[in-house]
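name: query_chain
kind: protein
chains: 1
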Amino acid sequence: MKKVILFLLLLSILALAACGSQSTSGSEGGSKNEKLVVGTDAAYAPFEYLKDGKIVGFDADLLKAVMKEAKLKYELKNTGWEPLFASLKSEQVQAGISAITINDKRKQTYDFSSPYFESINKILVKEGSPIKGVDDLKGKKVSVQNGTTGQDALEKKFGKGDANVKKYETNVLAIQALLNGEVDAVVADNTVVDEYAKNNPDKKLTVVDDKTNFESEYYGIAFPKGSENKKKIDKALKTVIDNGTYSKVYKKWFKVEPNLDALKK
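structure:
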């Protein structure tokens, strides 16, 4: 009799376990109510920045359109720049959008969406500066945001051990170093320095373009390696580019038409 009771008890436990596993499982991509956490560094206007405690910017608006098209729920979280990559690697966030340049080094650790923005590094200096290109930065103190392609470009040109390349946590701090006279120039993405110079005429700054030394780069949405969300978001991104939504968001923030051909190469 004891064996029969034990056998029936075991069947009951297995049945309960099966019911519990069915209630928490979902279709591919997780439960219908699952919310994806998307990390960003909200200190990079006009792509993402804080306004009245809310994350706004080009990336934020584009992400909203893409996730709506993909029918995915999400939360945009301000993680900071370097913590964003650590969070992607540990899958604490399921995606990252923060003007992240797609390059071979990053592709070893992360997956990327198809490109959604063409960019190029530029130099920000004070009016009257003798700096007219990258070659003129030799021996000068230059600020960059740590972990960016601006830093990579300078280290490639002048070497990783160059003490004159000053690394800051954000571009805001890198630009502030120039305003304070701590450095002679800032190297950052074109939209960041262009927008800053345009919106702060009282600071008397000049943007220097050097396409000989700086090549076009492309931003993408980053994912942990092997993420099943990449395919869905790629499809949605293509749709919002093709149906004109992307162009509307782009013109809202940059007041010009985007070069869609560059994104489709």
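note: The first strand starts at residue 35 and ends at 40.
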